[in-house]
Specification:
2 copies of one chain form a homodimer. With 171 residues, the first copy, chain A, is of the alpha/beta class. Chain A has a single domain (2-170), classed as Alpha/beta knot (3-Layer(aba) Sandwich), CATH 3.40.1280.10. Helices cover 39% and strands 25% of the residues of chain A. Chain A has 6 helices and 8 strands; from the N terminus they run βαβαβαβαβαβαββ. Chain A has helices at residues 15-27, 41-53, 65-71, 86-100, 114-119, 133-144; strands at residues 2-7, 32-36, 58-62, 75-85, 103-108, 122-125, 157-159, 168-170. In chain A, strands 3-2-1-5-4-6 form a 6-stranded parallel beta sheet, sandwiched between helices. The first copy, chain A, has a two-stranded antiparallel sheet with strand order 7-8. In chain A, helix 2 links the parallel strand 2 and strand 3. The longest helix of chain A is centred in the middle third of the chain and has 15 residues, at 86-100. The interface between A and B is large, with 50 and 50 residues.
């Protein structure tokens, strides 16, 4: 089971980026999106996407990120441009995950408390240049999850890939 | 040379997502960011990043996207969840790029005119689930560019990767 925790979401300002984080979590194979804070707007968008596009992905909201992070049973990673290169620690993370079966991916907005670097098992950089937490999450999951294994049961809509134009099938 | 074109940017609403698209373009190896429209706010952020973190990346603003896309000499791809799977057409795109030496990656916000699907050589899906243009760009470039080849000359700041905490070196 893979959880993605979004920290530092600011109402209004981060509405779109937080929604992107949630959509990427689902599309790239996470099972759960954990939003820290009081805003449930991004969760509604995600629920609509699950209703239409299927899968068992769930999106929840919590208040106490510290407790959640501390109590989480499994491998905890923090995506940050200050961390160690993904390609150097990916195999370690995979090995730990094989044992614990649970992974938490912590994704911040702008400022992340120093404590997070300590509470997580690995601080992982998808490149050490300023980029985007949405990009970091997508690339990390792309390397971590076997895309073939991702299922979206119960979908009402499905894309039929096309060379030109759009084709969406209603199921 | 790799250019990333951002279409459909709405002032205010897309400020953060467009900036993420530009940052990802730079961090993952593109040479140029082409913003369609009248808003130069995201370009200023990108210029500041280049000043501090180096490299030859340039960010420009254009008005006529249709002309730019039509006149572009090289491979043109459009990232869309309705397109053909990346892993099925990546080698074709790479082969074309080897010949033409230029690649344009078209990235939309919400609605993209049907014409774009025709003007581009390939409509490429990084997964057929709703996700994020920022994620699509990052994953595409991660598969397309040799990360080792990316240089950021002239940087004032550089991250020294750490297992814990942050270390930024002033050069």
């Amino acid at each position: 089971m893979i959880s993605v925790m979004r920290y530092g979401h600011r109402i209004g300002r981060d509405k779109r980026t937080t929604t992107h984080v949630g959509l990427v979590a689902r599309a790239f194979g996470a099972d759960e999106f954990v939003l820290v804070g009081m805003d449930s707007t991004p969760l509604k968008t995600l629920e609509n996407v699950v209703d239409n596009w299927g899968g068992d992905f769930r999106a929840i909201r919590i208040k106490n990120w510290r407790k959640f992070l501390r109590d989480f049973s499994g491998v905890k990673i923090h995506l940050t441009m200050y961390g160690l290169p993904l390609n150097k620690i990916l195999s370690k993370i995979k090995a730990d995950y094989t044992k614990s079966k649970n992974l938490l991916v912590f994704v911040g907005a702008e400022k992340v408390p120093p404590e997070v670097y300590e509470l997580c098992d690995y601080n992982v950089a998808v490149g050490n240049q300023p980029h985007s937490e949405i990009a970091a999450l997508a690339v990390f999951l792309d390397h971590f999850v076997d895309a073939q294994s991702i299922g979206f049961d119960g979908a009402v809509l499905r894309v039929e890939p096309q060379a030109r134009g759009k084709k969406v099938v209603k199921l």
